[in-house]
Amino acid sequence: MGGKASRDKGKRGEREARDVMAWLTGRPWRRGVGQTRRGSDVPDIEPESGDGSLWVEVKVSKRWPAIGKAMEQAREACGGKVPMVLSKKDYGEWLVTIAAKDLSVLLAELRRKD
Questions:
Q1: pLDDT-based confidence at 57, cuts 50/70/90?
Q2: pLDDT tens across 31-52, in order?
Q3: Contact indicator for 106, 54 with CB cutoff of 8 Å
Q4: pLDDT at 51
Q5: Which residues of 49-72 are buried (b: 16+ CB within 10 A; e: fewer)?
Q6: CB within 8 A of 76, min separation 6: which ones?
Q7: Which tens digit of pLDDT belongs to each residue from 70-101?
Q8: pLDDT for res 8
Q9: Are residues 75 and 54 in contact, defined by beta-carbon separation less than 8 angstroms?
């Protein structure tokens, strides 16, 4: 799959991931604002307030996405935020990948009340 179909699939995945994070945190999330074709300017999804501590990369694929590569991409782009990957196989369940040392940041984000 390439071109527009691939971009549309990516957008659908980001909207689903946004809804997952909203459910988990109890706060609204949005697709990254100002994202470029390179995708490195903003995270794929972020809290609507824009002040989250996580840099979330979203991957959806026919086969299991390459998590190591996705984490590397998030680490390179995160700008001091904590990199995290939300991934899933087509029609599968969402998985969360975060470095063990950063788990406390994820837990704090899930408990945070705006």
A1: very high
A2: 987 655 554 578 999 999 888 8
A3: yes
A4: 85
A5: eeebebbbbbbbbeeebeeeebbe
A6: 40
A7: 999 999 999 999 999 999 999 999 999 999 99
A8: 83
A9: no
Confidence of residue 7 (pLDDT cuts 50, 70, 90): confident
Strand, helix or coil for residue 96: strand
Residue 35 burial (C-beta neighbours within 10 Å; 0-12, 13-18, 19+): middle
Q: What is the pTM of this model?
A: 0.86
Query: How many residues make up the chain in this entry?
Result: 114
| CA-closest candidate to residue 78, choices 37, 46, 107, 113 | 46
User: What whole-number distance in Å separates Cα of residue 24 and Cα of residue 98?
Assistant: 15
**Planar angle of CA 58, 63, 66, nearest 5 degrees:** 50
At position 89, the amino acid (one-letter code) is K
In the numeric block, which tokens belong to residue 77? 């782009």
The structure tokens 């694929």 sit at: 61
Amino acid at 71: M
